[in-house]
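Session log. Operator J.P. requested a structure for one protein chain; no other inputs attached. Running the standard single-chain path with token output.
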Amino acid sequence: MCEWESRIMLEVTSVENEEGNHHEVETSNLNRGELTPTSTGAKRKVDIQKELCEYRQAMMTSMSSNLVETVSIDYEDFNESFLTCGTCLLNGRKSGMYDGGEHLPKLLPCSHTVCLQCLDRIVATFARDTGQFRCPICRELITIPRGGVQALPPSFLVNQLLDLMARQRREIIPKCSIHQNQELLFCETCDTVFCTSCIGGSHVSPDDSSGGSVAGGVPGGSGTPTHTNNVDHTVIPFSIAIKRMSEILIYKANECRAKLNEANDIVKEEIHRLDHNADEAFEAINSQFQTVLDSIEKKRQEVLDNVKVTRDDKKKLLEDQQQIIQAEKSKVDADVQAMRQQVEVRNITKKISDLNCKLDTVSTLSEPRENSYMQYVLPDDYENILNTIIESLDALGKIKTSKTFPSLCRASMETAIAHLEMKAKVTTIDYNGVLQTQGGDPVTAEVVDSQGETLDLVLTDNSDGTYELRFTPQRAGTFCLKVLIFGRPIKDCPLFFDVSEHNPPVISFGSKGNKDKGFMQPCNVAVDSMNNVYVIDTGNSRIKRLSSTLDFQDHIHNSSLEGRSVTGICMGRNEESLMVINWRSKTVAEINMNTGETVSSFTHDNFVEPIDVALNNEGHVLVADNGFGSILVFDVSGELLHTIGSKGSGKGQFKDISAVCVSATGEIVVADSRIQVFSPEGKFLREIYSQGKNKGRYGGLACDSNGFLVATRTEKAKSFIQVFRFESGQLYSTISSDGCRMKRPTGIAVMGEDERHLVVVDIGNDCVRKYRYF
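Structure written below.
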């Protein structure tokens, strides 16, 4: 709410009403009907409407309003005061308004403005000889410049006012249709046009009105006074509101026009690219088919040349034979001619004998020495060959196009977790919103982390209108995915997403109890080639079999599981058996997982506290004995082959052994508070995570075929899973989750390489959980 004594800034607008031309000018310091003009030296007739003041007082009593007030001055007075030459007025001329011709405004050194016509007249009258004249307003002596009064500078202020008046739009003040002299007002708060005389000093708020219209044809009110709700209202003359709305309309229209121009440029550029791509396609097609045509023409020419060579060879032999015939014919003719003059009977008889002999020779020349046979023969499988050629032509290439509309295409992805390969799916859609069923679009993608580094990304075309993006963020933070099709961004691109360090379990199964879903101190786990999960339910003396999705299947019972003391498990020598170890009975047993029967078992005098078991690549049984402080290696029959390590804290020694496993390449991996790697023969090779020595303890180990080593670890009050690069020993990631904390993870096993998952037994939570680990 503003006080009536506050200053009100007035807007400049041009209006024309029935009584004559008026012009509104901006003034300041208008205090409750008192106007202080901002300019001096000019007469200004200010006419503030009394009805406006009365209305203002009425609004103060009926509602809280912010009234934006305007003041009107006479249009002719404004022109006379600011835009008309004062000297012309003094001389009684009414046509002395400044213009760009003979009444050009000139600025005198004394800062007054006089039109050029008046200056010419003054100079002609008073300054013929002196070269000086006095200002007709302040009487200051003015020296005529060398170029005459024409050289005086123009009055920039007057010219600016002239330009302003030329640009100013003449508007009509809207009046009430009933009260002809009452200007309509507009409440910006209620979006209502009203006449104060019609509604009796108030107007209806949209929240209070129950329908009807303001008298006088003004929408948005009723004919009776109605109190509005208790909010601040901003009321301005309707003419000002129309001007503001017009300006907003023009601004929005210009903004829309700019957007349309931009859209037109984009479409025009796309047309240029289309023409360019079509030209390239024309060139590629012509080049490709020209190559084929050249090959065909070359083959055709080879066949034609073969015909010509064959013909020429045959023809040469026949022509040679013709020459021999002609030569013999010439000889016969010469002999006959010579014999006509002979009268010696003996000579004639001899010549006849020679001709008889020649007849025998001629008979051999009568048969052509070369035949004329020549024919273009098609192969027997000509039709198949022709079809093959046609198919080959079809395989030469085709035009690939697409109806994909990038702005409607979308990308979706799962929750992003550091160190896990993420998959994003891009679905393509055409302009009509129809899903595309074919691939081949030129899709480009990029993933950038918060530090501006670009991640390695693999893009796969699924050939069904979808595309798969695979990448692995190595740290937590905010990442940006950019996907472009035809060089244009898809919907919601760029897509920002957060990568979390916490890796929650995919599935969790079990709780404390002895039912199908119950566990009592589960301590170890194994996984078969079908990704079925086998969990030692130690407290219930059984093995629980679960599916790869951790759905309950059945229980395996065996006498070697009695005593609530089985702690180690691994897959047996075939896909139908499990190997377990019982620390209380100090027995290693192989159990048929289908029947629950014992396949074989053995014990040994060196067993003190055997806690874990594994099989190496040769089928030998590895037993981790915490009490003996070594890894004992047995053959199939249970005969001890050798031991690995001894009690102690040095390299190759163990303190509180917790787990043993075998890598894909045969190395033996043993854990206590650190992880040590031995060769298949038992020779110490290296340490992994030596900095963890004496700071915590491992609970389980497992190696996969992808070069990863996973291990459960507990340090003081926190537990987690560590993932290492086995060859380098580098820590790849740590699996923990704030929303699903581990209490005491022990046994761990990995699933098949395509699964990329591990299962871990949490004895503290009496459950088994499945995690994604790379």
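Operator note: Residues 507-772 form a domain with the Neuraminidase fold (CATH 2.120.10.30).
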